[in-house]
Amino acid sequence: MLGRLILTYPVASQRVGAGLLLALLAGLLYSIGISPAWIGRLFPATAGWLAENPDGAAALSAVAITAILVANWKAFRLLPRRQQVVAVWVELFVLLMLFFYSFNLSFAFIGKKIGFLISQGVVTTLYISAISIAVATFIALAGAIAKLSKNGVIYGLATFYTSLFRGLPLLMQIYIIYLGLPQIGYVISAVPAGILALSLCYGAYMTEIFRAGIESIPRGQTEGATALGLSPNQTMFLVILPQAMRVIIPPTGNQFIAMLKDSSLVSVVGVWEIMYLARTQGQTEFRHIEMLITASMIYWLLSISLEFLQSRIEERFGRFNAR
Amino acid sequence: MQDPTEPEIRLSGVHKWYGQFHALDDIRLDVARKERIVICGPSGSGKSTLIRCINRLESHQEGKIVVGGVELTDNEKNIDGVRREVGMVFQHFNLFPHLTILENCVLAPVWVRRMGRRQATEIAMHFLERVRIGDQAHKYPGQLSGGQQQRVAIARALCMAPRVMLFDEPTSALDPEMVKEVLDTMVTLAEEGMTMICVTHEMGFARQVADRVIFMDRGRIIEEAPPEEFFGNPKSDRSRLFLSQILH
Question: Interface pTM (ipTM) of the complex?
Answer without folding.
Answer: 0.91
